[in-house]
Specification:
The protein has 219 residues and is mostly beta strands. Helix content is 12%, strand content 33%. The mean pLDDT is 94.
Length: 219
């Protein structure tokens, strides 16, 4: 799954990595412990004809048509996102990218769960595939897609966020590309060999108390 991540790359680095024209944005907040149920940075087209923007979306997906008691998942699986009634409309028309520098997963060790930080070995940003929908309050809410873990990520957890390779970013964001099979043909996940990880302090367990860069230091 993906339940906690870090984003500390500055906007110029993200823009260079994205390689797509973006409307100007202000400085991004440095966050080493991004938790669900908060506003997070995303890249998306607010509608089919709008230019690409980097703005804030709520990490929790609940379409306005679903009602206030509907679930608010933070993740959607690649196995079901295109076919589930809850997600398929957003998959076809409202895809987004969530930038991150790495994410956290917990490995059971000697009766406790040891957090690990997973990131690109080359220090480049990650781009998580996401979907978004307008919430009842008119603001966007999103879910990050997950897939079966690959490479060294399998050592920590059975699933991982769907991080896309550079050539997949533009088609994933294309609002006019709606066919499921075509999307599958042109969108590919990041090479798993680029991912590395190490154990970190359990201070990451409490987002309200831990937000500094020391969270990603090897334990």
């Amino acid at each position: 799954m993906c339940g906690r991540f870090a984003l500390y790359s500055p906007y110029p680095k993200l823009s260079e990595s994205l390689r797509l024209p973006l409307d100007e944005t202000g400085e991004l907040a440095t966050r080493y412990n991004v938790a669900p149920g908060t506003w997070i940075t995303a890249v998306r087209h607010p509608n089919d004809e709008a230019p690409l923007v980097m703005d804030e979306v709520w990490w929790g997906y609940r379409p306005h048509w679903a009602g206030g008691k509907a679930p608010q998942p933070i993740n959607a699986t690649v196995e079901k996102v295109a076919t589930s009634r809850y997600f398929k409309g957003a998959f076809a028309h409202h895809r987004c990218l969530v930038p991150a520098d790495g994410w956290y997963e917990w490995l059971p060790v000697d009766g406790h769960k040891q957090p690990h930080y997973l990131t690109r070995a080359d220090g480049e940003p990650l781009w998580f595939a996401g979907i978004w929908a307008e919430r009842a309050d008119g603001k966007p809410g999103c879910a990050i897609l997950t897939e079966p873990a690959r490479g060294v990520a399998k050592e920590i957890h059975s699933r991982m966020p769907l991080a896309l390779d550079a050539d997949s970013l533009e088609p994933w964001l294309d609002p006019h590309l709606t066919d499921r099979e075509t999307i599958r043909q042109v969108v590919h996940h990041l090479d798993a060999e680029l991912i590395t990880h190490w154990p970190v302090s359990r201070a990451v367990n409490k987002p309200a108390e831990g937000q500094g860069s020391e969270l990603i230091n090897p334990a």
